[in-house]
Amino acid sequence: MNLLPFAVARVKAAHPGIRISMEVENSNVLLERLAQGKLDFVVARLSAEHDKLALRYESLADEPVCTVARRGHPLLECAFLALDDIKDAAWIVPPVASVLRHRFDLMFQRASFAPPSNVVETSAIMFVTRLLEKSDMLAVLAADVAHYYANAGMVAVLPIDMPCTMDDFGIITRNDRLLTPAASLLADAVRDEALNGSR
């Protein structure tokens, strides 16, 4: 979600006195903190188990997925790859309970392949980038994360169109609470970044 740093930077540049506190957790943890009144709003996904009657959801964007490898990986010599080319690779994947892991496994199953079994499970991005650097493993990442680390020269994005996307994410607020003026400014900046695309 590259749009969040851009939105925060814009608000702080225009209103340096505003105090902004960001928390990075999975959607369930963030929504629990929102319900407890510890957060003004969250940018996350809603799934079937969440109480939608108590929440207001405003979709921002969907989230495509990329496959990444170390720079110089042999697969980068290919002009185009298909799932058949990467199904037997060693993978770094999110934990089983995550949405991305479910979509990753489902992607292979829909193509009539067994999901990769040679895997390391982690959601720690620094561990992912270091392990890629030291091996020929592949990793599945949200596209904005993948391109951020690729632009920094830490990984390379493989030339494959992944038939795998995350559910859309959006701004989630409580129906029984209005946003503070400061939170409204940040939410507006997030909407604007989603609309215009993070640079």
Structure explained in plain terms:
The chain is of the alpha/beta class and 199 residues long. It has 2 domains: 3-61 and 167-196, D-Maltodextrin-Binding Protein, domain 2, CATH 3.40.190.10; 63-165, 3-Layer(aba) Sandwich (D-Maltodextrin-Binding Protein, domain 2), CATH 3.40.190. Helices cover 36% and strands 21% of the residues. It contains 7 helices and 7 strands. It has helices at residues 3-14, 27-35, 83-86, 99-110, 125-133, 143-151, 181-196; strands spanning 42-44, 55-69, 91-93, 119-121, 138-142, 156-157, 165-174. Strands 1, 2, 3, 4, 5, 6 and 7 form a 7-stranded mixed sheet that branches. The protein is globular and about 50 Å long. The mean pLDDT is 90.
Q: In terms of topology, how is this protein built?
A:
Layout: H1 3-14, H2 27-35, E1 42-44, E2 55-69, H3 83-86, E3 91-93, H4 99-110, E4 119-121, H5 125-133, E5 138-142, H6 143-151, E6 156-157, E7 165-174, H7 181-196
Helix pairs in contact: 1-7
Short overview:
With about 200 residues, this protein is of the alpha/beta class.
Q: Helical segment tally?
A: 7
Distance between the termini: 12 Å
CATH third-level topology of the largest domain? D-Maltodextrin-Binding Protein, domain 2
Largest sheet: 7 strands, mixed
Query: Residue ranges: pLDDT <50 for 5 or more in a row?
Result: none
